[in-house]
From TrEMBL:
This is Penicillin-binding protein 1. It comes from Alkalihalophilus pseudofirmus (strain ATCC BAA-2126 / JCM 17055 / OF4) (Bacillus pseudofirmus). GO terms for molecular function: penicillin binding; peptidoglycan glycosyltransferase activity; serine-type D-Ala-D-Ala carboxypeptidase activity. SUPFAM superfamilies: beta-lactamase/transpeptidase-like, Lysozyme-like. GO terms for biological process: cell wall organization; peptidoglycan biosynthetic process; proteolysis; regulation of cell shape. It catalyses: [GlcNAc-(1->4)-Mur2Ac(oyl-L-Ala-gamma-D-Glu-L-Lys-D-Ala-D-Ala)](n)-di-trans,octa-cis-undecaprenyl diphosphate + beta-D-GlcNAc-(1->4)-Mur2Ac(oyl-L-Ala-gamma-D-Glu-L-Lys-D-Ala-D-Ala)-di-trans,octa-cis-undecaprenyl diphosphate = [GlcNAc-(1->4)-Mur2Ac(oyl-L-Ala-gamma-D-Glu-L-Lys-D-Ala-D-Ala)](n+1)-di-trans,octa-cis-undecaprenyl diphosphate + di-trans,octa-cis-undecaprenyl diphosphate + H(+); Preferential cleavage: (Ac)2-L-Lys-D-Ala-|-D-Ala. Also transpeptidation of peptidyl-alanyl moieties that are N-acyl substituents of D-alanine. In the N-terminal section; belongs to the glycosyltransferase 51 family. In the C-terminal section; belongs to the transpeptidase family. It comes from the Bacteria. Residues 53-227 form the Glycosyl transferase family domain. The chain crosses the membrane at residues 7-35. The keyword Disulfide bond does not apply. Pfam families: Transgly, Transpeptidase. Residues 320-591 form the Penicillin-binding protein transpeptidase domain. Keywords: Carboxypeptidase, Cell membrane, Cell shape, Cell wall biogenesis/degradation, Glycosyltransferase, Hydrolase, Membrane, Multifunctional enzyme, Peptidoglycan synthesis, Protease, Transferase, Transmembrane, Transmembrane helix.
């Protein structure tokens, strides 16, 4: 037994001498070993926050938040130094005493039981070296550690170490770990909480307070004991802290599936506008302020997942939705598909056929702006042919003439194409370019949204914003502001507006598009705030009654958006079994989830615009009566009487019918009676009254015919 101890002692002395010689050689050589400083730059987590400063999600390759050594409490630093490198402030990168002690204990145990690496060595290994276990790697580790000590202060080395090490569950660095396990910054950690974190790097999974709370407590208590031995805390404090339970406030940042489309579009914009690659954003520690409305983003996501919003039999159909802030152009919500895949097909940016949702943009707004047409101008509603193009109304009915107001409300095809033909395709496409819609099409089919390439939901939302924005267009954006890891502003969104149409045209369009929602093709569903918009449906020629694309594009006084439904590829086996009523209902339900101040706001007429009065609706007159009376312009006269309209814009034409001939006797305004001053009692005459719209000068249907007959009950 004595011989064995002597042998061990001799081996220990020889090993120490050998280590000393090696150390001396290392000291001589270390000064020439170069350090790649770029490798010391750590990946940091980028935070996405809303405009109120609330954290939405984190973007990272490694979940790390860089923290200054000045913000780390002394007792947290002491916990790490005590358990990892007790002589940290005394050695110059390597601790020969610790190495000798480790070798001695390894020899006694006959296996490796204790490491001798300093904090500086651990930093060197994590940053610059692989995990291979060779003498050459160990030598490099020591050389780099010594060079780090020469170049950086102890505080700088400890700061790099504490920001780099892994703490389990995806958290890198002491700040991310503090927020993960205790839901607070490292500056607020107590002594026992700091001790718990200090115990994790040795085996993060084994000592995790989430996965293994008992082992985590045991490890924490070991750290507290070592802190007491090193004089950082008293024995009494150690006992008190060990008596505390493990109180973890788990704050895991999970990637909300509802945010995936929006995150991708943020990354795309960062690269396009600010020349920041996705890799840089995910590792650069940026703070990105986004205009996302969390509630709207979540609502749109949930609606897209719900089969009830799709026609029966179309549970596998796709959809996309995007919403912008009317005032700023900031994108409030974006969903690129029902089962959106990161960096995959984003249907918010996929071109589709817009159908009748294109009519306000390609036809009606530019016609109003040109000045020759107004909301109540009469348009031809006939089945006309233009070369080889023969547009038809879906219901097969034609009225001959129809107001622009009613053509928009009822989405009548023939008048839209006729008006575009009068306006000119060139004028229409010029206007569309100002809206950001640069299409190659040159035919009249653009009036009905039959486009060669199509348009995206985001483009449609941007274009409709011109109506909500009093005639001005603004570019949508996903990044309001972006700051680097040092808090310096990298850039902010350009919210510059460009006037495309007059406020008057914009207001007329708003009033007419409100009518679409209240009494037209967008009546389906219920909405709790003022809404203007237009439906769009494109038929699938392969199947009678089949639909290829279904849309609703619209806006409230605060939010403009578009919803599209369809299949990525429409075939005879997969096509929509319903039309635009489905995206209309979805849009309304999403909007109903808005909170104040985005909800319950009325449309406000621009100061420089005139109000658009509601259209004149001519009622059928069915109670015309003709009464004989004495006097008048002759011996006898006829008093005509009927129920008139409350609308003062309605006047009446009075007709007399005699022997099959119809003669207009008078025009009556502001009254609902008329006296036929001369009447021959020996002739048989009939009378009828026709209401007239003073705005369009269009006659309504004639009344019932009333006949004035000789009546002997005069009371002579």
């Amino acid at each position: 037994m004595l011989l064995k101890r002597i042998s061990i002692a001799i081996i220990f002395v020889l090993s120490t001498v050998l280590i000393g010689l090696v150390g001396y050689l290392i000291i001589l050589l270390a000064g020439n070993f170069a350090i790649d400083n770029e490798k010391l730059v750590m990946s940091a987590t980028t935070s996405l926050v809303d405009e109120e400063g609330e954290l939405l999600t984190k973007l990272y390759i490694e979940n790390r938040e860089i923290v200054s050594i000045d913000d780390i409490p002394d007792h947290v630093e002491q916990a790490f130094v005590a358990i990892e490198d007790a002589r940290f402030y005394e050695h110059q990168g390597i601790d020969f005493r610790a190495i000798g002690r480790a070798v001695y204990r390894d020899i006694l145990a006959g296996a490796k039981v204790e490491g001798g690496s300093t904090i500086t060595q651990q930093l060197a290994k994590n940053v610059f070296l692989s995990n291979e276990k060779t003498w050459l790697r160990k030598t490099k580790e020591v050389m780099i550690a010594m060079n780090l000590e020469r170049k950086y202060s102890k505080d700088e080395i400890l700061e790099m170490y504490l920001n780099r090490i892994y703490f389990g569950h995806g958290a890198y660095g002491v700040q991310a770990a503090s927020k993960l396990y205790f839901n607070k910054p490292v500056s607020e950690l107590t002594v026992d909480e700091g001790a718990l974190l200090a115990g994790l790097p040795k085996a993060p999974n084994s000592y995790s307070p989430i996965s293994n709370p008992e082992r985590s407590k045991q490890r924490r208590d070991v750290v507290l004991s070592v802190m007491e031995q090193r004089g950082y805390i008293t024995a009494e404090e150690s006992v008190r802290y060990k008596g505390r339970t493990i109180a973890v406030d788990h704050n895991k940042i999970t990637e909300n599936e509802a945010f995936l489309t929006y995150i991708d579009m943020v990354l795309e914009e960062a690269e396009r506008k600010y020349q920041l690659s996705s890799q840089e954003v995910l590792s650069g520690g940026y703070k990105i302020v986004v205009p996302m409305n969390q509630k709207l983003q979540q609502s749109a996501f949930e609606r897209l997942q719900n089969d009830d919003y799709f026609p029966d039999g179309n549970e596998g159909a796709e959809a996309a939705a995007v919403f912008m802030d009317v005032e700023t152009g900031g994108v409030l919500a974006a969903q690129g598909g029902r089962e959106y895949v990161r960096r995959g097909l984003n249907r918010v940016e996929s071109k589709r056929q817009p159908g009748s949702a294109f009519k306000p943009l390609a036809v009606f707004a530019p016609a109003l702006e040109e000045g020759d047409y107004g909301p109540y101008s009469m348009l031809r509603d006939e089945p006309l042919t233009y070369g080889d193009y023969s547009p038809r109304n879906l219901n097969g009915e034609y009225s001959g003439q129809i107001t622009m107001y009613d053509a928009i409300t009822n989405s009548t095809n023939a008048p839209a194409v006729w008006l575009l033909n009068e306006l000119g395709v060139k004028e229409s496409t010029r206007f569309l370019e100002h809206l950001g819609l640069d299409i190659p099409d040159k035919g009249l089919s653009i009036a009905l949204g039959g486009l060669e390439e199509g348009v995206t939901p985001l483009e449609m939302a941007k274009a409709y914003r011109v109506f909500a924005g009093n005639g001005k267009v603004v570019d949508p954006y996903f990044i309001s502001e972006i700051y680097d890891r040092n808090g310096e502003l990298v850039g902010r969104a350009n919210q510059t507006e460009t006037e495309v149409i007059s406020p008057q045209t914009a207001w007329y369009m708003t009033r007419m598009l409100e009518s679409v929602v209240k009494e037209g093709t967008a009546r389906s569903g219920n909405v709790e705030t003022p809404l203007a918009g237009k439906t769009g449906t494109t038929t699938f020629p392969g199947v009678e009654g089949g639909t290829m694309d279904a849309w609703f594009v619209g806006y409230t006084p605060t939010v403009v958006g578009s919803v599209w439904m369809g299949y990525d590829t429409t075939t005879t086996d997969q096509y929509l079994l319903g039309g635009s009523s489905y995206p209309t209902v979805m849009m309304k339900d999403i909007i109903n989830d808005l909170d104040d101040p985005l909800k319950n706001v009325a449309f406000k007429k621009p100061d420089q615009a005139e109000e658009l009065l509601p259209p004149v609706r001519l009622a059928q007159i069915e109670d015309l009566s003709a009464k004989l009376q004495m006097g008048g312009g002759g011996l006898m006269s006829v008093e005509l009487d009927w129920t008139g309209s409350d609308d003062e814009r309605v006047y009446y034409h009075v007709y007399e019918i005699y022997k099959g001939e119809r003669e207009r006797l008078a025009t009556v305004r502001g009254n609902s009676e008329y006296i036929v001053s001369r009447f021959n009692p020996f002739s048989t005459k009939q009378y009828e009254v026709t209401p007239v719209d003073s705005v369009t000068n269009q006659e309504g249907d004639p009344s019932n015919r009333a006949e004035a007959e000789f009546n002997f009950g005069f009371g002579f």
